[in-house]
Give the backbone structure.
Amino acid sequence: MMNTKAIGYITANYAGNEPSKLLENRPVAALPFLGRYRLIDFPLSNMTNAGIHTVGLAMPGNWRSIADHVGHGGDFQLDRKIGGLYTFPGNPYGTTKRGMRFLLRDIISNRELFERSDAPYVVVMGANIIFNMDLNEVIDAHERSGVGITMLYVKAERKHSDASRLIIGDAGRVQKVEPGCEYGDNKFIDCFIINRDLLLDIIKHYANADYLDFFEAIAGDMARVDVCSYEYKGLAIGIFGERSYYERSMELLAPTVYDQLFQKDRPIRTKAHDAAPAKYYAGSNVANSFVSAGSKIHGTVRNSILSRNVIVESGANVTNSIIMYGCVIKRGARVENAIIDKNNVVPENTEYRGTPDAIMVIGKGTRL
């Protein structure tokens, strides 16, 4: 069913504030997740599940891995004659504060997406706070409220220095957006609904501040713009660096957590790959793990996440680790408390071991 009330805009044009071997050759939005997904899959799926069939995607400078993954949008039901997925280049980021991810310059330079639509609302999302919700509920709530912007938030379950918090006053009105949040704060989940006419007005009147983040630019006009809040009470997972990436991934090994993010009536779509199911050979031992298609398991895998085409040879042991595409864990090798990026070979009888407080991270294609 087509949603005639809203079009979508997703920004992937930003980087994490923490230096990371995982992000040396890919943007945050292209980061692999749970073996078969990438972070960009979640905002795209949220939109298509809500019937939003016109989606703009602002690309980062290192766009290639995202373009390869999303293609023309066919795997996300966005390869269509009317509407569809529109990718456009993002601009160099300005002097924005940490935690802000909606560059006004990108919105302004791609105003055509909003000018050509006759939908009354625009759903705007980032890519590194992931959740699975019925966007129609918040679109309807925004419509009933009569406000200009509705910002989604959750109660922060932990400290997030790279997330933003909302200062909320009477009647749920947002007074301020600040970088960083503590436990119990109103954590902005990088999703908001805005009236399309208001967005076009902001594009016109804030052009001289285009180097700022959207909410930095309108900070002095929050009351006039009439910004409201909407509390999302489901699971929202923030990926802000290697530690949060590892910890949030490991938490999803618990079925009670996994079921909050993956729901049958709102599937998370991803790029289709033609690969045989994972194969478990005699003598293999696998427990409490995600093992993706094309993998071959001869050894032991426990409490771990394996992407496609991973080989764990006989006598090898993988524990509490994330192993990405095409890696080979050779005979007798041991990997524990580690993230091994794609196309690495862990040599025979070697040990790569981090600790729960200091995860070992091996970059893509590293000579081990």
Summary: The first strand starts at residue 6 and ends at 11. The chain has a mean pLDDT of 93. The chain has two domains: 6-261, 279-362.
